[in-house]
Amino acid sequence: xxxxxxxxxxxxxxxxxxxxxxxxxxxxxxxxxxxxxxxxxxxxxxxxxxxxxxxxxxxxxxxxxxxxxxxxxxxxxxxxxxxxxxxxxxxxxxxxxxxxxxxxxxxxxxxxxxxxxxxxxxxxxxxxxxxxxxxxxxxxxxxxxxxxxxxxxxxxxxxxxxxxxxxxxxxxxxxxxxxxxxxxxxxxxxxxxxxxxxxxxxxxxxxxxxxxxxxxxxxxxxxxxxxxxxxxxxxxxxxxxxxxxxxxxxxxxxxxxxxx
Length: 260
Fold this sequence. Notes:
Number of domains: 1
Low-confidence stretches: 252-260
Largest sheet: 6 strands, parallel
CATH class: Alpha Beta
CATH architecture: 3-Layer(aba) Sandwich
Mean pLDDT: 92
Distance between the termini: 30 Å
């Protein structure tokens, strides 16, 4: 890390060699509803507060030099919530992009959206696709929002595409390997995740980036998403930097598991 870059970092992060930083951070943003309930507010207030928190964390991650940030905003299963709440969430997403697009463009951020977008309202698809198109040539951090996303659904969709290619005679099934499957995951999506953060203390991955988190380091905090500050992100990065990543190699028991 260059001295001038280190000088711009918070003191607790400046001493970390850059090779020990996560290049790709993914976050399961959980706890908006609980944040609102604890304050006697309607759940929608928590969703609005959570959207504001996204701005702060994206800004900080970009300033820190994180190469990729993927945020779980709306799962495939979230359609089971009350229709009124889902409608509000879709409008919050539209409002967020309208508000944040100048920031995205001014900060050289490349924006992508992953998930089954054909099931999203047209007004959401329109602004998502326009923002993707207008930021496609940006060379800074890639920010991805997972909306109507599910890890199993992503793998199923990839398998369907591969099966169709094989049925059409364009693909030898014997040629299917990990690289080919990865290339058929959602366009604009996420490569291998280094650090997966979950807020609100839940100890599960909730069908998020199942393919991509195979060797991710997991960090769970009890902090609710609207209270997840830049300092909390720094704690997660510091924790990551202190871990020894083995990938089933050195120190493995021979079955792909780490011994210690």
